[in-house]
Amino acid sequence: MSEANILKIICGNGGAIYYERLLELASGFPDINCFEFDSLIENDQLFSLTENSGVKQVLAKTNVRLCKVRDCTGCKNLHLCKFYLHGECKGRRCGYGHNLNSHHNAKVLSEHQLQRLSRAEIRQLLLHNDSPHSLLPPLCMSYNHGEGDYGRCDDKDNCTRLHICEGYIQGTCDSGDCGRSHDFFEPHPMRTLRGRGVPSGMVGSMLSVYRNILVLRGTLKSNAGAKNRSGRRGKGGGATTTSGVAKDESSPARPGNCFDLTPHC
């Protein structure tokens, strides 16, 4: 249960937490031996330890995904509706699962030490490990190239990819005259996220989520973090920690039509 408790702490803190703070919180659990703490978080199936300028941070990981098939046998993933996971499923005839505690889902969660997580904590964990993109829209790289409001994106307002500045996500865009959006609340990004079922209350934490995805993939170009500023059209984004991994404020206590966030796409 030790690793399961550590996972719960991290997911309850937005999916990423400072090492020292995690150690402090973990010391309150009788089944977590602080002398063995480092060996526990070295489990790279569950945790990713990053360090920048001497500051260490721990991110939660998982191999669990949402199954894209309604009925399958021998499946290792959750049989769960993504809109239900977001708390937004309104389809009375939805054929996907709406029960985290079903026999199948309970078994999957237990096998991956996720059985103590709430639905909100599981959502946070799956968002940060969203590869390939099933819960969140990928960045539109056509939008990020070219001139004008839509760059080279031919789909323009009908595009289902995210029209957000890639440099802003990467923490490398500090140009005051950037013509790309730095604001997830603008109409196009907001509509795209809501179309994937992301609740409006979570939109403010999307910068942290997308950056943590890059951290877990090892493709974040800058650990310095982007400043919270307004671009030409943007309002700025979520807060970032000093280590550059964005903090989820909602938690309690690549050219062409690229479908990935990796810079070499």
Automatic annotation (TrEMBL):
GO MF, one example: NAD+ poly-ADP-ribosyltransferase activity
Keyword Phosphoprotein belongs to the record: yes
Record region (Disordered): 224-255
Keyword Metal-binding listed: yes
GO CC entries: nucleus
Pfam families hit by this protein: zf-CCCH_PARP12 (PF25261)
Ranges where the C3H1-type domain occurs: 80-101
Cross-referenced InterPro entries: ARTD-AVP (IPR051712), Zfn-CCCH_PARP12 (IPR057602), Znf_CCCH (IPR000571)
Zinc finger (C3H1-type): 80-101
Keyword vocabulary terms for this entry: Metal-binding, Phosphoprotein, Repeat, Zinc, Zinc-finger
Domain of life (superkingdom): Eukaryota
Signal peptide boundaries: none
Record protein name field: Protein mono-ADP-ribosyltransferase PARP12-like
Organism this protein belongs to: Clupea harengus (Atlantic herring)
Gene label: LOC122132721
